[in-house]
């Protein structure tokens, strides 16, 4: 599936929150929507994506796609398929003209906030976020 930069950010947020503990709760969803709105306000000035309704539609599209990947993956291959799509999103974002240290560090901080939204940051969440930070050449949080 071809994603735009907002969908790529949403996919990373969803995958980071869900794939690590296999559960996406309401607090994490609210944090994802809030962080996406903030990213769009700061980096999406050229697009007409500033409505919450548009962000919600993109979130729904990404959560449905995320679930489809899991449903369609062969037995025991779901994590690998999701990891491949996460890697694509990471690379796609890194190749955007607006991508810089500030954007990368901001998105990493957002991933940390989302991980903390459910009250517990587990080891796999920490490793996942640090790996993205390493790939983007920014400071690891954990």
What is this structure's SSE topology?
Elements: H1 5-21, H2 26-43, H3 52-72, H4 78-94, H5 101-116, H6 123-136
Helix pairs in contact: 1-2, 1-3, 1-4, 1-5, 1-6, 2-5, 3-4, 5-6
**SSE topology string:** HHHHHH
Uncertain ranges: none
Report the oligomer. Answer: single chain
Tally the beta strands.
Answer: 0
Shape: globular
Count of helical stretches: 6
Distance between the termini: 31 Å
> What structural category arises from helix and sheet content?
mainly alpha
Radius of gyration: 14 Å
Helix percent band: over 70%
Q: Taking all residues together, what is the mean pLDDT?
A: 88
Q: Strand-residue fraction?
A: under 5%
Largest sheet: none
Write a compact overview of the structure shown.
The chain is 73% helix and 0% strand. The protein is mainly alpha-helical and 142 residues long.
Keywords:
single chain, 73% helix, 142 residues, mainly alpha
Walk me through what this model shows:
There is one protein chain. This protein has 142 residues and is mainly alpha-helical. Helix content is 73%, strand content 0%. The chain contains six helices and no strands. It is globular and about 40 Å long.
